[in-house]
Amino acid sequence: MKKQILILAGDGIGPEIMAAAEKVLHKINAKLQLGLSWEHGVLGGAAIDAHGVPYPAATAAQAEQADAILLGAVGGPKWEQIERSIRPERGLLQIRSELNLFANLRPAILYPQLADASSLKAEIVAGLDILIVRELTGGIYFGQPRGIRELENGEKQGFNTDVYAESEIKRIAKVAFELASLRGSKVCSVDKANVLEVTELWRQTVTELQQAEYPDIQLSHMYVDNAAMQLVRAPKQFDVVVTGNLFGDILSDEAAMLTGSIGMLPSASLDEKGKGMYEPCHGSAPDIAGQNIANPLATILSVAMMLRYTFREEEAAKAIESAVGAVLDQGLRTADIMSTGMQKVGTIAMGDAVVAALDAF
Ligand code: IPM
Ligand code: MG
């Protein structure tokens, strides 16, 4: 493997958080002689400005070549008025889909140092460690037909289609079962099988796979409305949660808040061979862009996930995660995770502190 990474900083706070993450990547690469190399490309609004489309052919060619992609965030008010099919978010959906990155892992882990930053009581979230496995290239995000049409009476009607084939359900459920076997051996599959046929098939398929191939995994099922409630009522009941594209989008934001801030949550989007795109779960936050106040830790932790899942460098991944723990121990906080008695720092200082902490290992 040539160990090539494509960095797509994107829009809004993307370039700032990525600059911090890149310093960390540089440090770990040199320190542990990982032999990684990287180049930059454009995606989203930045790509629209440069090439007129959110996922240009040049970026697609770079992405095809790379073993892993590190992404900041895309989108912003500047591009909200343009035609739907070439908005920044479409670039993100396109790269996910074209590279077949169907398995989206979103770990919601509470750093003990941040128990006070959660909106829930500390005892409800202490020790929280949930892994949300979201299907990322199917479901209502991609289903056809879709659009906005005009009815005979002249009224407009919007429509989308939620579709999942058995094979799509099986491959994501398999990822969830495999990952569960490396941790708490519990999978909760989230659906709306009481109303939607597509998720009735989802529930049936997940159940059959568990019975046939994963008898040691404890499988439960939950309707999405109940899951949303249980996540804030008693989140520690969950180990691995597997769900479709739309429910996963919503539940992962909710789970993020349990950990104090969405600014702490990394993610991995993997294909069947381990190629992956790694990005923070949060968006481009245009309202705070360019102010050096965004939290770079989700992106830095995404670097750790990349080292773990694509490059199989567990030691390097752990070193970064420990360094993040160390800077939190030092009391350093960006605005989103700030609490009394802590030291407020900006994006750059937070990134530099992680780099410095890596020196200590
Ligand atoms: C996410 C984001 C994206 C999604 C948007 C930006 C298209 O919310 O990664 O969760 O809905 O998948
Ligand atoms: Mg989302």
Give a description of the structure.
There is one protein chain. It contains twelve helices and 14 strands. It is α/β, with parallel strands linked by helices. The chain folds into two domains: 200 residues, 3-Layer(aba) Sandwich (Isopropylmalate Dehydrogenase), CATH 3.40.718.10; 130 residues, Isopropylmalate Dehydrogenase (3-Layer(aba) Sandwich), CATH 3.40.718. The strands form three sheets. Strands 2-1-3-12-11-4-5-10-8-9 form a ten-stranded mixed β-sheet, with helices on both faces. The longest helix is centred in the N-terminal third of the chain and has 18 residues. The radius of gyration is 20 Å and the shape is globular. The structure holds 3-isopropylmalic acid (IPM) and magnesium ion. The site of magnesium ion has 2 residues, from α9.
* Structural class by secondary-structure content: alpha/beta
Top CATH class of the largest domain: Alpha Beta
Which hetero ligands occur in this complex?
Answer: 3-isopropylmalic acid, magnesium ion
Q: From the coordinates shown, what is the CATH architecture of the largest domain?
A: 3-Layer(aba) Sandwich
What is the topology, as strand order, of the major beta sheet?
Answer: 2-1-3-12-11-4-5-10-8-9
Helix tally equals 12
Q: Poorly predicted ranges (pLDDT <50, ≥5 residues)?
A: none
Radius of gyration: 20 Å
Beta fraction: 15-25%
- Using the alpha-carbon principal axes, give the shape: globular
- Report the span from N to C terminus: 27 Å
Number of domains: 2
Biggest sheet overview: 10 strands, mixed
CATH superfamily of the largest domain: Isopropylmalate Dehydrogenase
Number of strands: 14
Q: Give average pLDDT, whole number.
A: 96
Element string (H = helix, E = strand) = EHEHHEHEHEEEHEHEHEHEEHHEEH
Enter the CATH topology name of the largest domain: Isopropylmalate Dehydrogenase
The percent of residues in helical segments reads 40-55%
